[in-house]
Write a structure and sequence with these properties.
The complex is a heterodimer of chains A (136) and B (363). Chain A is α+β, with helices and mostly antiparallel strands and 136 residues long. Chain A is 21% helix and 33% strand. Chain A is elongated and about 85 Å long. In chain A, strands 2-3-4-9 form a four-stranded antiparallel beta sheet, with no helix packed on it. With 363 residues, chain B is mainly α. The longest helix of chain B has 33 residues. Chain B has a single domain, classed as Cytochrome Bc1 Complex, Chain C (Up-down Bundle), CATH 1.20.810.10. Classes of the chains: A alpha+beta (136), B mainly alpha (363). The interface between A and B is medium-sized, with 21 and 28 residues.
């Protein structure tokens, strides 16, 4: 190999190494770091949610709603619409959850009734412990 | 005194030759029309955005706890703060309108054709950067409208399988719109977009200067008949000198731009400030109606009516690619749109659809 070719090869290798050494940290820098350990549970009083009513909560920074469904019991659902991230609210009259942005509607199990949401609302773990409702 | 300064500069940077060659001897074609001033109006508009943006930076605090209050302070406490913010907001909307008009007139006159394909592509990228400026600046006042419009817009990439969630997370700096998003958008608005914009603008002006102004709005001109491999600058030796003749026209249109801006600031100050744009952001309450700025209403409404989110995104990406590389899709030699009924029909249909979607999205 000629000296000039060797130098060109060396220059290319150094260039690629330098570029890769900069690109990798850049990508890692732009991807947000993981968040700190979140609260494991949230406790609310059962009497706060009479039958047919709902209570909006924030669980691990996620806006959620606990609904006391007639005949079906309590359920905790994320309020973040699966379409484009707006917050759904409980429509007591029609017993459904409604997204104000693009009119997506969900039933009280979180399933999509109508509109553009592609999937159901995530269900959060919930259990009843005496007079309390424990989320998480 | 002025002659001495001029001579001093001439010895050092050759300013006399520069002015003579680039301004006085620079000739523009005789059949040039008023629409050719829109490029200069756009540059003037950007200059206003830069100056007012720097002034706003003095008082603006990019933190979720202070952003809204700092903007309220600019509007209500800082002397003439309202004026500079209004100029910035009104200017951003007007500017995008002027860039749209610039591209529209270039399209209608067929001036994107060979050898100006790259000038069109860079122009389209400049329009894209202008919209990115508007989009990133929209969040900064941290209002209900800006917060939720950003929530919706940054959720759009999630429609793309595999990479979508990562892209949305990188845009937001997390899983939802938070202070991290505000920091990112602020950095994007004031320090990432400006150098990209300046590079593209430099390239756009370089190409315009190198290839020369297309003096024949309609019909096939000499440079378009020439083979791809030859370069020949289009000069206009029988044209008008740029200075003072066309320069005055440029200046007149810049004054029209300023007049419209100040008219709107005086008589329609709330044109771009609907109710939710004056309420502080509440991450736990989505307002009843969310809508982006007027120039994003059509794509927003399109996403709304297409039932499949992924399909909606794919259609929008395809339309953007078509727009960006249009000079390569349109291979017809005829420039005059009046002699091309199919293209004219397609254009009118697309334009009508865009207007309908815009008003539908607003309702």
């Amino acid at each position: 190999m000629k000296r000039r070719s060797f130098l060109q090869l060396l220059l290319s290798a150094l260039g690629i190494t330098t570029l890769a050494s900069l690109l990798y940290p850049l990508v890692r820098y732009l991807v947000p770091p993981g968040t700190a350990e979140k609260a494991r549970t949230l406790v609310i009083a059962k009497r706060d949610i009479p039958l047919g009513y709902a209570k909006e909560i924030v669980f691990n920074d996620v806006p959620a709603v606990v609904v006391n469904r007639p005949g079906k019991g309590l359920i905790a659902l994320s309020r973040v619409c699966t379409h484009l991230g707006c917050l759904v609210h409980y429509d007591k009259e029609n017993r459904q959850l409604l997204c104000p942005c693009h009119a997506g509607t969900f039933d009280l199990d979180g399933h999509v009734i109508s509109g553009p949401p592609p999937k159901p609302l995530p269900v959060l773990p919930l259990r009843v412990d005496g007079e309390n409702i424990v989320i998480g | 005194m002025w002659d001495r300064v001029r001579n001093w500069l001439d010895v050092r940077i050759g300013i006399n030759d520069l002015v003579e060659e680039e301004v006085r001897a620079y000739r523009v074609p005789k059949n040039i029309n008023i629409f050719y001033t829109l490029g200069v109006v756009t540059i003037a508009g950007y200059l206003i955005q830069v100056i007012t943006g720097i002034l706003l930076l003095i008082y603006y605090v990019p933190h979720p706890d202070h952003a809204f209050q700092s903007v309220q302070g600019i509007m209500n406490k800082v002397p003439f703060g309202w004026l500079f913010r209004q100029m910035h907001v009104m200017g951003s909307n007007l500017l995008i309108g002027v860039v749209f008009a610039h591209m529209l007139t270039v399209f209608l006159m067929g001036n994107y054709k060979r050898p100006r394909e790259l000038t069109w592509i860079v122009g389209a990228l400049l329009l894209f950067v202008s919209v990115a400026f508007g989009f990133s600046g929209y969040l900064l006042p941290w209002t209900q409208l800006s917060y939720w419009a950003t929530t919706v817009a940054t959720a759009i990439p999630t429609a793309v399988p595999y990479m979508g969630d990562l892209v949305a997370n990188v845009l937001r700096g997390g899983e939802s719109v938070t202070g991290a998003t505000l920091s990112r958008f602020f950095a994007f608005h004031i320090s990432i977009l400006p150098p990209i914009f300046l590079m593209l603008l430099g390239l756009h002006l370089f190409l315009t200067k190198r290839i020369g102004i297309s003096g024949t709005p309609f019909g096939l001109s000499a440079e378009e008949k020439r083979p791809w491999t030859e370069y020949h600058k289009k000069n206009h030796p029988d044209g008008y000198p740029y200075y003072p003749r066309f320069f005055q026209k440029d200046l007149f249109m810049v004054m029209v731009y300023l007049a419209v801006m100040f008219f709107l600031i005086t008589f329609a100050p709330n044109l771009f400030f609907p109710g939710d744009a004056t309420m502080p952001a509440d991450p736990y309450r989505t307002p009843a109606s969310i809508r982006p700025e007027w120039y994003l209403l059509a794509p927003y409404q399109m996403l709304k009516i297409i039932p499949n989110k992924f399909l909606g995104v794919i259609i929008q990406v395809a339309l953007f690619v078509l727009f960006l590389f249009w000079p390569f899709f349109d291979t017809e030699k005829e420039k005059n749109i009046m002699k091309r009924p199919f293209l004219r029909g397609m254009f009118l249909a697309a334009f009508a659809l865009w207007v309908i979607l815009m008003f539908w999205g607003r309702s």
